[in-house]
Amino acid sequence: MKFMKTLNKIFLILAVIAFVSCDEHLTELNVNPNGVDPSVVNPNLIMPTIIVGIADHYLDDNYQGDQAGVMQYIQKSGWGAGGYDYEWTTAKGWSGRYNVLRNANHLISRSEQMGMEFHQGVGYVVRAWTFGYIADSWGPAPYTYALNATGGDQTDYFPPYDDEETIYRGIIEELKNANTLLSKPRGQYEGISASADVLYNGDPALWRKFANSLMLRYYMRLSDKLPTFAQNGIEEIMGNPSQFPIFTSNSDEAAMNYVGASRENSWPVSVAFDASRSGFERIQMCAGIRDALQEHNDPRMAVWFNPVRVQIQVSEDYPEGDVVVDGVRYLRPDHMAANNMVVYNPDTWVDDAIANRVIVDTNVFVGAPIAYTRGDIANWNLNPAPIQGGANPHNSALADMFQGPAGELLQARLITYAEVSFILAEAAQKGWNVGGGTQQQWYENGIQASLDYWQVGGQYDDYIAEPGVAYDGSLEQIMEQKWIANFNVAHESWLDWRRTGLPDLTVGPNGARQAMPLRFQYPTDEISRNFQNWQAASSTLVQTAFTAGDGDDSAWSRVWLIQ
């Protein structure tokens, strides 16, 4: 027993010695050899993370997300109910957005410490962009106390939600701050690394134009709720081009290219990293955009989409009721009548869907109508091999270029020159002073910018003379052309539609709700963690006839902007 006690003492002494030794070296050993200490990190290491952070998620919304579906650019043949049936009854997470904001805040802090004003300016633009996206999408949200957890106060750990007016006014001030920080020639800034800036290669003049062009977007967002504030803001920018430079060409716009070397740095669902092709094949043309493009003989249709692989035609030339000859599928009229089939008509297809008729589209470019049936669109247009998530030879697929991992036109576009032009056309339509340009000039400039970007600018003269495109001075015309030009920028089109009701999109009878969603529901983890503040914020939302049993926090509740 005495031996055991002695042995225990020896082990205790050794343990104490070991602990002291470990304590002396604990800090040294507890350093990630592959990481960077946040307190000493160079701002150039943070910048690409936050730029990619906003660009990637935004493109996903715009190219294949629910917003691209409800704005009728695309439909999905599988796993896309949010786009074709309005299934927006599931909360959408915002943790990724707040992660970007934390990194942007750290970029600003480290840049201030190191006297790097260019990096500060970039940080403020990304902050404003991200908080704007959150307010646009959810409504009230943590802003003032959102990023203060290190402070340790109750409001830091459980931040109250700011109202949208506070957020929008705040981000406009942040963009003004960025405009000032980015106002010097490039040679007067410290520490710029072109390779770290994956958007503008370290060009402060272009970031400054980005900040001011984004300001135009948010002033227009506020134009109905705060018309005087919005008018004064836009007129201040347009009256002082040297103080507030904006985009003046497509080469200015905020558009991030892809490397294409791996799945992570490639265009979404590229077939280069998806042998099944399922991700690409399931994204197909929607009838909404097809009808508009076809009506105006729009040259962008063939840039964005492929013709159907097998066209359907109605003909009495063959005795068979349904037969494929030389790559064309022929249907006899009597066969169609016997099987309750009708030819797609943009003016009557909703009534046909209500009557449970089988709609057949015989065009060269074909798009699936939104909410024409419950469930996915795999069976649309007599698809001979309906597979959830599969291709359809009778519906137009995306153009071949979208299969690639990278390309000249495969960009995450954050705000475009065409959008800026249409914003100014709308401002002029309201009677506001937008500098030297008229409503017609800005409207036509927006069309020209979009056609040029998609490399069909040579057809501008013919297109601008088309009925419905030729200038008539209406808001409806501006918003339709802005919607078309915002292909792959669907989130902004959705917000425009929410604000103006334009374009007037036709919707089928079989959506989850008979109205387009108006916002995102708050994240479930946020509700459980910050319940009282979530409840207070939700109570400021206004329910509509379509919120059903959702309560205040519904995708069909009205946010402050549209109350």
Average pLDDT over all residues: 92
CATH class of one domain: Mainly Alpha
The total of beta strands comes to 9
N- to C-terminal distance: 82 Å
Strand order in the largest sheet: 4-6-5
| Rg from Cα | 27 Å
Provide the helix percentage.
Answer: 40-55%
| Sequence stretches where pLDDT stays below 50 over 5 or more residues | 1-34
CATH architecture level-2 label of one domain: Alpha Horseshoe
- Strand-residue proportion: 5-15%
Instruction: Please report the number of helical segments.
Output: 22
Q: Which term fits the overall shape?
A: globular
**Class from helix and strand fractions:** mainly alpha
Structure characterization notes:
The protein is globular. Residues about 1-35 have low confidence and may be disordered. With about 575 residues, it is mostly helical. α6 runs parallel beside α9 (about 205-220). The relative contact order is 0.13. It has helices at about 1-30, 45-65, 65-70, 80-85, 95-115, 115-140, 155, 165-180, 205-220, 225-240, 280, 285-295, 300-305, 335-340, 350-355, 415-430, 440-455, 460-465, 475-485, 490-500, 525-530, 530-540, and strands at about 75, 255, 285, 310-315, 320-325, 330, 340-345, 360, 410-415. A hairpin with a 2-residue loop joins β5 and β6 (about 330). Among the domains are: about 1-30; about 45-270, Alpha Horseshoe (Serine Threonine Protein Phosphatase 5, Tetratricopeptide repeat); about 275-405, no CATH class. About 45% of the residues lie in helices and about 5% in strands. It contains 22 helices and 9 strands. A 3-stranded mixed sheet has the order 4-6-5. A two-stranded antiparallel sheet has the order 1-3. Strands 2-9 form a two-stranded antiparallel sheet.
